[in-house]
């Protein structure tokens, strides 16, 4: 594995770690308004990454199919959505600001289920980075190393508020700051692992790269629509989350185009 791939895998994890460290700098639980802004921003980054870094390259790779170039992207997109739907239904987890857990019934601590809620959607993000890095390593003309690193940086930016959103509520629930930081950080470790597994299987996956790119996009879009937008829209001042979403989308779009 070359140095660039290793860096690309670790960048998103660094974002989660730095975000989780905010628990040491902020004395009280996270302000609800700030939480809405961060959720909106993270959702915007993920949506832009899904479109610019995953779906569009998927269709570009299938350009030989002419007007049917959308088919691999469509199939992968729907498979990704239904995959995350199944994971969501099977894994016991608890969303922030919710009291009723989702998924299969399990006797787990509340803090554990909160971490699992974030871990679930870190899997497709890790896969997305892994697929794009594998494509660039295979010298695919559609995916450059700069574009792959742009996706890694974009997800790291999105992971920063996500790390804070998980570590600070854990501290507010009674966990020590060190434990909250550790749990927040560990919620992101699944990303480089998922990315690494994807890269190790790249010899099998390269031929179906258009499907894998759109699969990762579908999984990420599911998380945005099913979890992030509803959480950001609860209560007053939901419009601030919309502004955060727009800014996040714009930042990721600029990153992808400027660095690709």
From TrEMBL:
Signal peptide: none annotated. It is a multi-pass membrane protein. GO terms for molecular function: zinc ion transmembrane transporter activity. Coiled coil: none annotated. Keywords: Cell membrane, Membrane, Transmembrane, Transmembrane helix, Zinc. It is found in: Cell membrane. GO terms for cellular component: plasma membrane. The chain crosses the membrane at residues 6-25, 37-56, 68-91, 112-135, 141-160, 180-202, 208-225, 237-259. Its main location: membrane. Belongs to the ZIP transporter (TC 2.A.5) family. This is ZIP family metal transporter.
């Amino acid at each position: 594995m070359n140095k660039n791939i290793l860096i690309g895998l670790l960048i998103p994890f660094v974002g989660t770690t730095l975000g989780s460290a905010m628990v040491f700098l902020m004395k009280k639980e996270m302000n609800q308004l700030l939480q809405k802004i961060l959720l909106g921003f993270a959702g915007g980054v993920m949506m832009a990454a899904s479109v610019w870094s995953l779906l569009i390259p998927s269709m570009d790779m299938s350009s030989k199919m002419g007007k049917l170039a959308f088919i691999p992207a469509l199939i992968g997109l729907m498979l990704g959505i239904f995959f995350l739907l199944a994971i969501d239904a099977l894994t016991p987890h608890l969303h922030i600001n919710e009291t009723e857990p989702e998924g299969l019934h399990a006797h787990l601590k509340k803090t554990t289920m909160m971490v699992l809620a974030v871990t679930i959607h870190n899997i497709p993000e890790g896969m997305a980075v892994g697929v794009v890095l594998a494509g660039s390593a295979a010298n695919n003309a559609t995916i450059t190393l700069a574009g792959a690193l742009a996706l890694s940086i974009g997800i790291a930016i999105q992971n920063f508020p996500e790390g804070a959103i998980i570590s600070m509520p854990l501290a507010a629930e009674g966990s020590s700051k060190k434990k909250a930081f550790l749990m927040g950080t560990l919620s992101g470790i699944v990303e480089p692992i998922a990315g690494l597994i994807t890269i190790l299987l790249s010899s099998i996956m390269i031929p179906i790269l258009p499907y894998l790119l759109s699969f990762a996009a579908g999984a990420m879009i599911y998380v945005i629509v099913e979890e992030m937008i509803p959480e950001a829209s609860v209560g007053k001042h939901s419009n601030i989350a919309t502004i955060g979403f727009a800014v996040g989308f714009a930042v990721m779009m600029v990153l992808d185009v400027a660095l690709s």
